[in-house]
Amino acid sequence: MKNCVGVILSFTILFGLTIGLSAAARAQGFVLSKGIFALCTVAPCNAVPGSSKALACSCTVNNGYSVGQKPGQPITATAAGEQIRSRYYPVKAYVICDNDRPWAWCLDKPCTISKSNPNAATCTCDEVKNLGAYVIVTNQYTKAACTTGIISSATVQQITQATDFLKKKDSALAPFPIQVLSPPQKG
Under 8 Å CB-to-CB from 122, ≥6 apart: which residues? Predict the structure, then answer.
């Protein structure tokens, strides 16, 4: 009986952790804010030493309207430096990828502004994969888009939800018509 309870408890904990991680990368409600934020839309990312799930992504610092699942926040002073949050800004084009390559989930993640370059920030993002088709924001299709490096991204569903949110808002942040890029047709 004790073994059965132990197995059920272990399964419940493992299932809860799996659901919790994938829920973190699922889009839900959005909040439009104006202020300083990190934009990680095309950010290259690298593993954080000593962590199996954290990625350090090289993002840009922007000021204006943005979308997140939490309200925007002002710059916060920390021991590591000035901290801001990563947020979403509408994109114009992307490639859809559907493979098991890992990518970085950066929305609302903490970012430290570079002390040597106030236009750059390093954001600590979650490594995710196998959440369905995801996007690589780019202005030109390349075969390598879905296979090279670890990039900050979102699922197709997440980017569609954020775009739909902005379409419903009467705000200063209107979404762009999104072009889905695909390989050139042979003919």
Answer: 56, 57, 58, 59, 111, 112, 114
Measuring CA to CA, which residue among 42, 151, 149, 147 is closest to residue 88?
42
Which 8-state DSSP code applies to residue 132? Answer: S
Strands 103-105 and 76-78: unpaired
User: How high is the pLDDT of residue 187?
Assistant: 60
Per-residue pLDDT tens digits for 65-112 = 999 999 999 999 999 999 999 999 999 999 999 999 999 999 999 999
Q: What is the DSSP string of 73-100?
A: ---EEETTEEEEEEEB---SEEEEE-SS
Identity at 168, one-letter amino acid code: K
Going by their DSSP bridges, the two strands 54-68 and 44-47 should be labelled as: antiparallel
What is the residue extent of each domain of the chain?
27-172
Q: How far apart are CA 181 and CA 103, in angstroms?
A: 19
What phi and psi, each to the nearest 5 degrees, are found at residue 66? -155, 170
pTM value > 0.70: yes
